Amino acid sequence: MLALGVRAVEPNASIPMSPESSLIASLMLESELELQPGEHIYGRPDIWPHLKEMYEGYLSEPSRAGMQPGWHSTYAVVAYLAGDYLVARQTIGDS
Q1: Closest CA to 26 of 89, 70, 90, 82
Q2: Nearest to residue 22, comparing CAs of 34, 7, 32, 43?
Q3: Using an 8 Å Cβ cutoff, are 84 and 76 in contact?
Q4: The dihedral of CA 81, 83, 87, 90: what is its sign?
Q5: pTM (predicted TM-score)
Q6: ∠ CA(31), CA(28), CA(82), 5° rounding?
Q7: Are the C-beta atoms of residues 75 and 85 closer than 8 Å to each other?
Q8: Rounded distance, CA 79 to CA 67, Å?
Q9: 5, 26 Cβ separation under 8 angstroms
Q10: Given this model, what pLDDT does residue 16 score?
């Protein structure tokens, strides 16, 4: 599941996938791990860099300018849950 999510944000992938697949794969993996309430895997070093890349890609894409407030919000929440408080704070400031 994790490999699928990483593949989604790879440039020049042989099978085009939506970058959102990275987030969906993380959510599915999280549910499979049967974590305790309030526990999340977003901050894992094998997950967070890919989620961060996905969000930053969407925020820098001019064709998605109308959706940026929503992307800023979700990016800030996921960054916070990942324990990257600096990114969460910066993202809130950018919105």
Answers
A1: 82
A2: 7
A3: no
A4: positive
A5: 0.71
A6: 80
A7: no
A8: 18
A9: yes
A10: 46
Q: Band the pLDDT of 76: cuts 50, 70, 90.
A: very high
Distance separating alpha carbons of residues 81 and 79, to the nearest angstrom: 5
Q: Give how far Cα 25 sits from Cα of 48, 62, 66, Å.
A: 12, 25, 25
3-class SS letters over the chain:
CHHHHHHHCCCCCCCCCCCHHHHHHHHHHHHHCCCCCCCCCCCCCCCHHHHHHHHHHHHHCHHHHHHHHHHHHHHHHHHHHHCCHHHHHHHHHHC
Distance, CA of 23 to CA of 9 (rounded, Å): 10
Domain boundaries, the chain: 2-94
For 40, the token pair is 């999340």
The length of the chain is 95
Query: Which of 92, 94, 67, 93 lies closest to 80 in space, CA to CA?
Result: 92
The yes-or-no verdict on residue 3 having pLDDT over 90 is no
